[in-house]
Amino acid sequence: MNRRMSRRTKTVAVAAAILLTLGAGGIAAASADEAPAPAAATATVKEAAALTGTAKLYRPAGDDITFSFDAHLAEKDRQDPMKATGTFRFSHYKGDWGGYAKVKVDCLTTGGKVAVVSGLVVETDVKEFRKARVGVTVHDDAAGDRLGYTWMTADPKKDKVPPCLSGAPFEKVKEGTGDFKVVPWEFVYPTE
Q: Which partner for 51 in 75, 78, 115, 146 could form a disulfide, CB atoms 3.0-4.6 Å apart?
C-alpha cells in the first residue's frame, strides 16, 4: 500500500509540476505579447523647460482657488523662452461667486525649482481678464509648493503685463494638493 501511495504521490507531483510549468509559460507568453514596447523604442521628447501640475491655494475662509499648468519650451527653442507653448488655467470660487480663466502660454522661464509663465487669456467668464496678459510664478518645493501672480498688484485690464513677468511666490499651496513639476531651463551662452 505504501508503494502505491508513493507512486501515486509522485505521479500527482510530476503532473502538477508539468501543469505549473505550462501554465507559467502560457502566462509568460501572454504577458510578453501584451507588454508595452521597450523603453528604447519609445520616442522621448527633450524639453528645455517645462511647468506642469495642479494645486489649490491655501485659504482658511474656504475659497476654492485652483491653478493648473501644462507649459513647455522645446529643446529647439532653448534660446527663446517666448516660443513656449501650452496653457494654464486658474479659477477662484466661493459660494455662488467666482470665475475662471484659460491662458495661452507666450513665455516660460525656469531656474532651479522656480518657474515664471505668462500668457494671454483666451477664455474666461471674468470681464477684467478678457484678452489680458497675466503671469504666474511657481516654486516647486518638497516642503510645500508656493505660487505668485501679477494681478495681486496690477489690474489685468488696465496695467499691461510684459511677457515673462510675474510676482514672487507669496501664496501657500493647500497641503496635499501641490504636484507642480518644474524642468529647469539652462541658458546656453554663446561662445566667441
A: 115
